From TrEMBL:
Homodimer which binds Holliday junction (HJ) DNA. The HJ becomes 2-fold symmetrical on binding to RuvC with unstacked arms; it has a different conformation from HJ DNA in complex with RuvA. In the full resolvosome a probable DNA-RuvA(4)-RuvB(12)-RuvC(2) complex forms which resolves the HJ. It comes from Methylohalomonas lacus. It is an enzyme of class 3 (hydrolase). Binds 2 Mg(2+) ion per subunit. Mg(2+) 2 binds at residue 67. This is Crossover junction endodeoxyribonuclease RuvC.
């Protein structure tokens, strides 16, 4: 069994989702959304680092998965997203958690079967795949989706002789 934390970085809201994986069996452990707010960027990044670090410390995942940054039309927003992503990677790395990255299309493909799924479809599939009673908030659902994508990718790579799970690892 391996525990994975999925991270959906954002400068105002960062989602996290933690699952246990054993073969093709997935079990929900925890999820949440870190509300960084509208304050100064430095304070928001500190809150993301602190709260995500506490969740990682509390649940002790062995691996982390994070969504890759995409280029937004607004360069300022993309830079802030990149900074939130960097803080999240450092929060995991400082606790010796290996970090892997996936594109939004890879995540959607792994959950819904097509790369252009809606947020509602992602939330619905996360609820079904993890047997949740209630639909998680959008950012937490996205983070759980990242964790599920990593679990599926990891399981597939383990079935290939001589292949390691280093694909997609942040370096």
């Amino acid at each position: 069994m391996i525990r994975v934390v999925g991270i959906d970085p954002g400068s105002r809201i960062t989602g996290f989702g933690i699952i246990d994986c054993e073969g093709n069996h997935l079990r929900h452990v925890d999820h949440g959304a870190i509300q960084a707010g509208d304050g100064e960027l430095g304070e928001r990044l500190r809150r993301i680092f602190s709260e995500l670090g506490a969740a990682i410390d509390r649940h002790a995942p062995a691996e982390a998965a994070i969504e890759r940054v995409f280029m937004n039309k607004n360069a300022d927003s993309a830079i802030k997203l990149g900074q939130a992503r960097g803080v999240a990677i450092v929060a995991a790395s400082l606790q010796d958690v290996a970090v892997h990255e996936y594109s939004a299309n890879q995540i959607k493909q792994a959950l819904v079967g097509r790369g252009h799924a809606t947020k509602t479809q992602i939330q619905h599939m996360v609820k079904i795949l993890l047997n949740l009673r209630e639909t998680p908030q959008a950012d937490a659902a996205d983070a759980l989706a990242v964790a599920v994508c990593h679990a599926h990718t990891r399981a597939s790579l383990q079935r290939i002789p001589g292949r390691t799970s280093r694909a997609g690892r942040v370096s």
